[in-house]
Amino acid sequence: MKTSPKKSGMTFHDLVLSIKGVHEQCLVQATKAVNISLTLRNWMIGYQILEYEQGGLDRANYGSRVIEKLASTLHKEIDQCYTGRYLRLCRQLYEVYPQIGKSVISKSDTPQNWKSLISESSVKKPSLQAEYNFVPTEELIQQLSFTHFIELFKCENPLKRAFYEHECIRGNWSVRELKRQIVTLYFERSGLSKNKKKLAALVAQKAQTDKPEFTVRDPYIFEFLGLKPQEVMGESHLEDALLDRLQEFLLELGHGFCFEARQKRILLDDEHAFVDLVFYHRILKCHVLIELKADEFKHEHVGQLNTYVNWYRKNAMSPGDNPPVGILLCTRKNHAKIEYALAGMDNKLFVKKYQLELPKKEEIQKFLEAQM
Fold first, then answer.
1. Mean pLDDT, range 312-339, rounded to an integer
2. What fold characterizes domain 233-371?
3. Are 78 and 34 in contact (CB under 8 A)?
4. Are 46 and 94 spatial neighbours (Cβ–Cβ below 8 Å)?
5. pLDDT above 70: residue 276
């Protein structure tokens, strides 16, 4: 006797919502697990660096160059993410949050050699903000990413830092929102406000909250996972598709473009930025940076591109190179535009050659309009 399948009492719309819920819950859990591992790894790196600086057997051989030498070695042997700045941030994580060691030891899946390394030293060191520990350490690790911690480092006042820890977790703030609240002096405004609850409600109403899909795009996350920037940094399907075609188009023109990078990560002070496409032009002997905006032209686009061009001039030029140039492409029907950032190109002969060797405005405009 056959039995009929059990009815779920679910509509197709309910099914879609249910699957979306499962997907989002798993994404949250996976992102949280990666964030926790990254934080613990960086705390451990910071701990070991400080221990070596204070008692390493051959530390005298390196003196003040320990971080630079270590960064150079790790860059070759592990990954290019290990810069001097990154290692200093790891050390700062340990110095500001030594209490994380207790969580490292208490976790059942912590490697045994980690526990033996830190059990006798770091856990006994008091926290610099012990009297202001409003948020349990375990909750800090679970709710905040390493990039959140980097922003919190900037609060030297322990009470101020504890305030932002609490508010960040309570409001599920994104890193950008945490930074914005620190810069706009939310802590100080709260102290001066007579109606603190009203101020908190206004902040919560306007705050940008964290979403797992954007958290995964954190540069430290995809470096930790070994992902390439272009795998996670695409702003839209349209821009991704256009960049794919544009890359092929420029290489096929035969003007001397040599492809170098897609979504090239550069560090501007404490912020990461990503250049859409980077070429080296073998005839002009310079880098060509291309930014694509699936939008109409805006003045801030020029400022952004000019910043990238200036960064490349300062940090990426080799002897014999000409100054880098930038090409801004804004794509929207009837608004296809191209702007060349000519900053620093005062050599008339070079400019003339540049105008001959780079694609003509009409060529690129025709290409963009055809793609759109």
1. 81
2. Trna Endonuclease; Chain: A, domain 1 (3.40.1350)
3. no
4. yes
5. yes
Comparing CA positions, the residue from 316, 320, 337 lying closest to residue 260 is 316
Q: What is residue 234's predicted lDDT score, i.e. its pLDDT?
A: 55
The torsion of the CA quartet 138, 141, 144, 148, rounded to 10 degrees, works out to 130
Query: Structure tokens of 234?
Result: 């695409």
Domain ranges of the chain: 18-220, 233-371
Task: Evaluate whether 31 touches 214 at the Cβ level (below 8 Å).
Answer: no
Instruction: Count Cβ neighbours within 10 Å for each residue of 105-116 and write b for 16 or more, e otherwise.
Output: eeeeeeeeebee
Q: How far apart are CA 215 and CA 176, in angstroms?
A: 11
Closest CA to 281 of 257, 259, 262, 260: 257
Under 8 Å between Cβ of 326 and 289: yes
- Tell the burial category of 142 from Cβ atoms under 10 Å away from its Cβ (0-12, 13-18, 19+): middle
What is the β-pairing status of strands 325-330 and 286-293?
A: parallel
What's the mean per-residue pLDDT of the chain?
A: 79
Residue in the structure block whose two tokens are 């296809």: 336
Q: Whole-angstrom Cα distance, residue 137 to residue 144?
A: 11
Q: What is the 3-state secondary structure (H, E, C) of the chain?
A: CCCCCCCCCCCHHHHHHHHHHHHHHHHHHHHHHHHHHHHHHHHHHHHHHHHHHHHCCCHHHCHHHHHHHHHHHHHHHCCCCCCHHHHHHHHHHHHHCCCHHHHHHHCCCCCHHHHHHHCCCHHHCCCCCHHHCCCCHHHHHHHCCHHHHHHHHCCCCHHHHHHHHHHHHHHCECHHHHHHHHHCCHHHHHHHCCCHHHHHHHHHHHCCECCHHHHCCCHHHHHHCCCCHHHHCCCCHHHHHHHHHHHHHHHHHCCCEEEEEEEEEEEECCEEEEEEEEEEECCCCEEEEEEEECCCCCHHHHHHHHHHHHHHHHHCCCCCCCCCEEEEEECCCCCCEEEEECCCCCCHHHHHHHHHHCCCHHHHHHHHHHHC
**What percent of the residues of the chain are helix, what percent strand, and what percent coil, each to the nearest 5?**
60, 10, 30
Q: Does the structure show a pLDDT above 70 at 274?
A: yes
Q: Nearest-5° angle of CA 22, CA 23, CA 29? A: 90
